């Protein structure tokens, strides 16, 4: 930690604790570019990306944010070179195994969302073990989107609902927003209030398409491995300046 980082151990004084996002979601982009800038292999960027994610999780915990969701691998990421895909799968598995005890001690509740059945069996085992081992924890909810695609999630929910209707277990008039949400991978999670994307790209890339309907978007040019507490502080400052209307009117016009 740098001196500046140490001073950010507790919630910065200019942030109002009552207006923090309850749930922050992150698109961790820029690992490859970070590595390239330093003349390192892409793998080094991903490794540093893991450390950044661990630091952000701890920062959310220190600052009183209830939930963090990270986009770790999309359904489209399979199209990367096999060597990189294999490296990422091995990295996730190793990190999960190494970090689990500390996460349990810190009361973190881990959840994975996505099509998990397509992942290597050993990783699936580690994922299920980590979810089970932290199920009763009452600290921050940490959700990792793995082999996740927002469109695929919505289609998956439609299939399940259609199946229920076909079998006479659900009536058409029972299908509404609340019911639909129960069939998403994220069922039971509150929606993200703030979505952060690093490395300057202005798109959602198939991440939480349903859940981010009213999320505030924050895009920074900073590459993911460099996204530290000071950067997160800036994102939260911006968030606290936003007027969240959820389709209504500005608070000073009513
Ligand atoms: C984007 O960078 C990042 C990813 C594809 C995901 C990798 C995420 C991590 C390594 C952190 C999560 C780790 C765990 C254990 C949950 P990029 O490769 O797209 O960067 P580029 O756009 O600069 O090429």
Structure at a glance:
The chain has 8 helices and 6 strands; from the N terminus they run H-E-H-H-E-H-E-H-E-H-H-E-E-H. It has helices at 3-7, 31-37, 42-63, 82-105, 121-134, 150-166, 177-181, 229-241; strands spanning 23-27, 67-74, 109-113, 141-148, 194-197, 216-219. Strand 3, helix 5 (121-134) and strand 4 (141-148) form a beta-alpha-beta unit.
How would you describe the overall organization of this protein?
The chain is an alpha/beta fold and 254 residues long. The chain has a single domain, classed as Decaprenyl diphosphate synthase-like (Undecaprenyl pyrophosphate synthetase, 3-Layer(aba) Sandwich). A six-stranded parallel sheet has the order 3-4-2-1-5-6, with helices on both faces. Strand 3, helix 5 and strand 4 form a beta-alpha-beta unit. Helix 2 packs across helix 3 and helix 3 runs parallel beside helix 4. The protein is globular and about 60 Å long. It starts with a helix and ends in a 13-residue tail after the last helix. The structure holds farnesyl diphosphate. The site of farnesyl diphosphate (FPP) has 17 residues, from helix 2, helix 3, strand 2 and helix 4. Farnesyl diphosphate binds next to helix 2, helix 3, strand 2 and helix 4.
- Helix/strand/pairing category: alpha/beta
* Cα end-to-end separation: 46 Å
The CATH topology name reads Undecaprenyl pyrophosphate synthetase
Number of helices: 8
């Amino acid at each position: 930690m740098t001196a500046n980082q140490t001073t950010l151990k507790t919630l910065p004084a200019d942030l109002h604790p009552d207006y923090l996002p309850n749930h922050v979601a992150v698109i961790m982009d820029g690992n490859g570019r970070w590595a390239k800038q330093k003349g390192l292999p892409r793998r080094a960027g991903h490794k540093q990306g893991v450390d950044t994610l661990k630091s952000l999780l701890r920062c959310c915990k220190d600052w009183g944010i209830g939930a963090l969701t990270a986009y770790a691998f999309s359904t489209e990421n399979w199209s990367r070179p096999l060597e990189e895909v294999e490296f990422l799968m091995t990295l996730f598995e190793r990190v999960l195994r190494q970090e689990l005890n500390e996460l349990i001690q810190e009361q973190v509740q881990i959840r994975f969302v996505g099509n998990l059945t397509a992942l290597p069996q050993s990783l699936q085992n580690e994922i299920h073990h980590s979810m089970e081992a932290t199920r009763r924890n009452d600290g921050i909810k940490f959700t990792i989107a793995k082999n996740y695609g927002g469109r695929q999630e919505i289609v998956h929910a439609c299939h399940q609902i259609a199946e229920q209707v076909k079998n006479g277990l659900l009536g058409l008039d029972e299908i509404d927003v609340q019911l639909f949400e129960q069939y998403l991978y994220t069922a039971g999670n509150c929606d993200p209030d703030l979505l952060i994307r690093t490395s300057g790209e202005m798109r959602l890339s198939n991440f939480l398409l349903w859940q981010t309907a009213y999320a505030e978007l924050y895009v920074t040019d900073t590459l993911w491995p460099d996204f530290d507490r000071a950067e997160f502080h800036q994102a939260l400052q911006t968030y606290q300046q936003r007027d969240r209307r959820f389709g209504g009117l500005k608070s000073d016009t009513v």
